Amino acid sequence: MAAFARSAPCWVDAQLPDLEAGKRFYGELFGWTFRAGEGPYADACSGGKLVAALAAKQDGRMPTAWGIYFATDDIVATVARIREAGGQVITEPVRAGRAGALAQVADPGGAVFGLWQAGDREGFQKQNEPGSFCWTEVHTREKDRVDAFYEQVFGFQATDLSPDTEQDTDADDSAAAGSAPAYRMWSPAGTEPGPDTAVCGRSVITDAFPAEMPSHFLSYFAVEDCNSAAGNAVRLGGRISAPPFDMPYGRIAVLQDDQGAVFAVLQPPVSEKGAE
């Protein structure tokens, strides 16, 4: 049985100009250790378990960014659905040795993501714990097209949340009331949609952001202390894009590493941690 539900996020990696600098930054920030992967690729481990990878960029035109991969049990069929739904195929499915097969694609708004069909490597061996992946969301200006795309391609079940009220809302009512755009959470097909089953989300890029900001995925890593992680990122040469702030699901900060790759950190609410 696969470790990941079809369409669930299963892996993240960062494409960086300087791999060794990336290992130093994330090794100190998250306590990761590294082992050699395929080619210019370093697997990141937390407590001896795979959590991510860093890769040396092979083309300077590629963005310095974190990439997210979604699990599929039939990568060829998923790529076909992406084309049918108005997405773009950047890299056709290719084998990564015995580890699995991958493809790079983009949604109708231009946000890039990966697909992963597992072979010997399923993906994360640890998540939702400090030093590991815990969430991802697509930021887009093409809300309606993008929502339809992911729900058609992956069969996601949607739950709309108002960032102001923390309550489930109807997106049209929220917009009519002039409130902030609804935040949409997606749960895998076959599950009861809601925060407890959600695996990723969608946020809207409003006019408050620069016009040149492209659609993109933002991935989150769990930390024990959000304020401390933000301070350490700066000490290590990174930057704070959004200072720590509180949300219903924890304390969040958006950061950049010392090479410009953007990511977020999330400190779960005290009640959540205390219940574990």
From TrEMBL:
Residues 163-173 have a biased composition (Acidic residues). It comes from the Bacteria. Residues 8-118, 132-268 form the VOC domain. CDD domains: SgaA_N_like. Keywords: Hydrolase. Residues 160-191 are annotated as: Disordered. GO terms for molecular function: hydrolase activity. PROSITE patterns: VOC. This is Hydrolase. It comes from Streptomyces gelaticus. The lineage of its organism: Bacteria, Bacillati, Actinomycetota, Actinomycetes, Kitasatosporales.
